[in-house]
């Protein structure tokens, strides 16, 4: 009788473990596909702003790495890209900005991107859910791109406000 009860106990143990692994794999695949679709698409840049940005090599490297980050397949690839993005942001901050974009509004949005890069890096390090920090990073990147558009479209001179 004891051999029979041990056999049933082992049978239940192995059958229970198998379903959890399959469920975890299915859930992981579904969440990766679903969450990748929820990321905001990069904002469009005006042609006038694009002309200025094409001459700014540091920004071009940031733009390329963000595009690769959106296509990252796993956490290890994402960690490596985050290290590169941190270095690119430091170089971008130290570089000379084009005259049209050398404004506090642009520089502050770059700081926000650095903040969300750190938040995403921490989520990956502590093995937390990283989709929300990734979404926030993409939103802040879009804010930077939109600020480029606003800066180029702005036709008011700052000297108008200084005289009053």
How would you describe the overall organization of this protein?
The structure is a single chain. This protein has 164 residues and is an all-alpha fold. It has a domain of 110 residues: Up-down Bundle (Four Helix Bundle (Hemerythrin (Met), subunit A)). It is built from seven helices and no strands. α4 packs antiparallel against α5 and α5 packs antiparallel against α6. The longest helix is centred in the N-terminal third of the chain and has 37 residues. It is elongated. It starts with a helix and ends with a helix.
List key phrases describing it:
164 residues; mainly alpha; Four Helix Bundle (Hemerythrin (Met), subunit A); 78% helix
Give the SSE order as H and E letters.
HHHHHHH
Major β-sheet, in short?
none
Give the C-level CATH assignment of the domain at 45-154: Mainly Alpha
Which CATH architecture of the domain at 45-154? Up-down Bundle
């Amino acid at each position: 009788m004891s051999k029979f009860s041990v056999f049933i106990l082992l049978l239940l143990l192995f059958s229970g473990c198998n379903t959890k692994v399959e469920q975890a794999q299915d859930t992981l695949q579904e969440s990766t596909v679903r969450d990748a679709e929820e990321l905001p698409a990069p904002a469009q840049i005006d042609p006038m702003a694009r002309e200025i940005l094409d001459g700014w090599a540091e920004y071009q490297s940031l733009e390329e790495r963000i595009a690769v980050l959106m296509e990252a397949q796993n956490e290890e690839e994402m960690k490596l890209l985050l290290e590169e993005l941190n270095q690119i942001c430091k170089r971008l901050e130290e570089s000379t900005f084009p005259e049209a974009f050398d404004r506090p509004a642009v520089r502050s949005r770059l700081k926000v991107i650095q903040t969300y890069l750190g938040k995403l890096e921490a989520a990956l390090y502590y093995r937390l859910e990283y989709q929300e920090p990734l979404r926030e990073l993409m939103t802040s990147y879009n804010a930077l791109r939109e600020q480029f558009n606003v800066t180029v479209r702005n036709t008011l001179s700052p000297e108008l406000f200084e005289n009053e």
